[in-house]
Amino acid sequence: MDDRKLKILEAIIDEYIQTGEPVGSRNISKKLDLKLSPATIRNEMADLEEMGYLEQPHTSAGRVPSDRGYRLYVDTMLSPREVDDRESLAAMTEILESRIDELSYMLQRATRLLSQITGYPIVATAQTDDDREVIKNVQLFPVEVEKVMVVVTTEAGSIHNRIILVPEDATVEEIGVIAKVLSSKLHGLEISSIDVALANTLSKHDGIRTDILLPVLQGIVESRRRNEEHRTYTDGAKNVLEYPEFSDSARAKEIIGMLEEKGFIRDVVTHMEDGEGDDLYVSIGSENRDEKMQDCSIVAGTYDVDSTHRVLIGVIGPKRMDYARVVSVLRDMKSVMNRKGLKGLNPGKQGLTEGDRE
Amino acid sequence: MDDRKLKILEAIIDEYIQTGEPVGSRNISKKLDLKLSPATIRNEMADLEEMGYLEQPHTSAGRVPSDRGYRLYVDTMLSPREVDDRESLAAMTEILESRIDELSYMLQRATRLLSQITGYPIVATAQTDDDREVIKNVQLFPVEVEKVMVVVTTEAGSIHNRIILVPEDATVEEIGVIAKVLSSKLHGLEISSIDVALANTLSKHDGIRTDILLPVLQGIVESRRRNEEHRTYTDGAKNVLEYPEFSDSARAKEIIGMLEEKGFIRDVVTHMEDGEGDDLYVSIGSENRDEKMQDCSIVAGTYDVDSTHRVLIGVIGPKRMDYARVVSVLRDMKSVMNRKGLKGLNPGKQGLTEGDRE
DNA sequence: GATTAGCACTCGACTCGATTGAGTGCTAAC
DNA sequence: GTTAGCACTCAATCGAGTCGAGTGCTAATC
User: Fold this and answer.
1) Whether B352 and A242 lie within 8 Å, measured CB to CB
2) Nucleotide whose C1' lies closest to the alpha carbon of residue A39
3) Chain A residues inside the 8 Å CB shell of B147
4) Is residue B284 included in any domain, yes or no?
5) Tens-place pLDDT, residues B82-127
6) How far is CA A155 from CA A161, A199, A228, B26, in A?
């Protein structure tokens, strides 16, 4: 694999990314400054095809990069273009300053911005580190008659809250007793370990009203579930229709369906966790596990919003997506985040203990 | 406009809704049990066209309903089919039992279910009655070092909450003082009336730390804004691609873009508020204000989740959408809601006053 | 030995005319 | 008022023909 072949391959991929049409030898011969005739290029192209970096849609058409070709391109030839769009940098900065408990809001705005500047659909999700979903403390705040706000703080630093309904005659004192018991008994437990058996044990304590305890426990469990499920956002689905590779409406429908399901992001997440911790993850065509994504590529990055919150943002596009630009935008985002995002955010210190707030 | 014409018009619309192809006289002559020859039908069709209920895509094609035709159909000929799908009724029931503070979660699940059973894209939003966004009380709960949960209860009965960051050295007492002052001073004010001037006035009170007060006030304002913006959900965008009228990918892109923008739902909302309070709202083609929606119809209904929360759910489809089925599904939803939805929900009584929770 | 010019060949895309057939409107008969 | 009959319209479909971008191979050239 000599240098010239690499140059030719790169030129072909660049061209194909731009036009979406199979590229021929004449075209490359002219574009490339090596003074080579189309015939020579053809020979090289035939070699590249044999090596598996190119494919031919049909005999008399030009060449198209194979997944392997893209992979080589992404791994070795990517020189991220500078994104000099000051406006989008400013927008990014502003978004990232959205504060921590508005993580979901921040994600929503970030997906929109990214889909606008890249022209691809975006998926973003907050990564929950299940192992660390250990209860640090549980607080109950009566808000109105019948309504109590349950606030669960986890060791990982996230705060789930939910309003629950308790019997009308529940007194502030009764609720206080339950709060005390829960804070001491649930501390250190995983949320997932809350079950009927635990409820039974707890209800044996003095002065605990089961008809208040049960909705509280249910509220704790649901606060987390709700949190997880709300935390995936997509935007720019319409961009799918921009690309001729998805002009077949059945294909487009599949992709848009995937975006709406949001399930496939899990795949990416696990992939990334397995990965070598590189800053960006790229999955090309057949590298995607999901069969429906065989014609797509995903470029994803993780972002540490603060020491306990990590966000994953993925760009979905056709295999011939503009990797250079996408990678550069995602990197920019990261750099903005490092300069700005951490400012003023809580680095996750130990909080008050149960008694402190009285 | 005699009875026979109506029968013929109905048959034509039914047929067109089913097939999406212009319908001819022969077809109707056979389908209709009136013993009429195609020629007679043709005469009637010509009349109906003259009256504006039908259109002809081109001279030698069959007839297609005009917007006016659909309107007549919807207003006078709709006999909602029974939806005998027990499973979806059960699913609806379960969804509607999602409790009140999970309104957004409930909406999300409802949109998904509806898009699945109707096969159309769905938009759902919670209607905020801006005039009633009057503060009933404000509560502050210290959750951790630097983090305080602000809970705003409005006269309308909704509860907004948000976590804010305060200076590290803020004490529970200092926060308590601010809570007391805010509760008495903000009571009865609209959230939108909070501004710099008000902040200045408030900060003159004894013992108020401005560096705590400001983030709290900002939190109150933002808690509401965030609430509003989060409260529109869409699902089933992929269904747009199901219908040949949107096979032109530019059209499809516009519609999907509209769904993602979510802005247009406001139009529907205002329309519905102007309306005669009928239970369902139908807007057909050119009746839609938005130019991009000229090829669509919207069927929407409002649902009172409880005495203070109203939800709007809209079905977007091509003009030849299956009105009978959609109307019937939305009505079913309403009836499920009346039987089940209100069970156990708080009818919005007066809550505790500020002092009660200490 | 690498490069290139030349040439025959391939095959999708496009054009264009002919054909088809569903459907109409009109007229005259029932 | 209804219907049979007929001429007419026009989108859709089909197939033959053409075009042209692009290839692979061979032989000549550097």
Assistant:
1) no
2) C4
3) 101, 159, 346, 351
4) yes
5) 666 677 777 777 777 665 556 777 888 889 999 999 999 999 988 7
6) 15, 22, 16, 73
Domain extent, residue A236, equals 86-130+230-340
For A241-268, write each residue's pLDDT tens digit.
999 888 888 889 999 999 988 777 777 7
Q: State which H helix or E strand residue A254 sits in.
A: helix A249-261
Nucleotides of D under 7 A from a protein CB: 2-5, 8-11, 20-26
- Residue B42 shares a structural domain with residue B94: no
For chain B, the helix, strand and coil percentages under 3-state DSSP, each to the nearest 5 = 55, 20, 30
| pLDDT tier for residue A71 given thresholds of 50, 70 and 90 | very high
Distance D18 C1' – A318 CA (angstroms): 34
Nucleic chain C contacts, protein chain B, residues 62-101, CB cut-off 7 A? 62-63
Mutate to test the interface with A, among B101, B140, B163 (most CBs of A within 10 A): B101
A308-344 pLDDT per residue, tens = 677 889 999 999 999 999 998 898 888 887 665 444 3
Do B234 and B325 lie in one domain? The reply is: yes
- Cβ contact A159:B163 at 8 Å: yes
pTM above 0.85, yes or no: no
Q: Which residues contact B333 (CB under 8 A, 6 or more apart)?
A: B92, B110, B114, B301, B303, B313
For B143, the closest of A153, A222, A349 (CB atoms) is A153
Identify whether residues B244 and B285 lie together within a single domain. Answer: yes
Strand D close to A157 by CB, under 7 A: no
Q: Number of structural domains, chain A?
A: 3
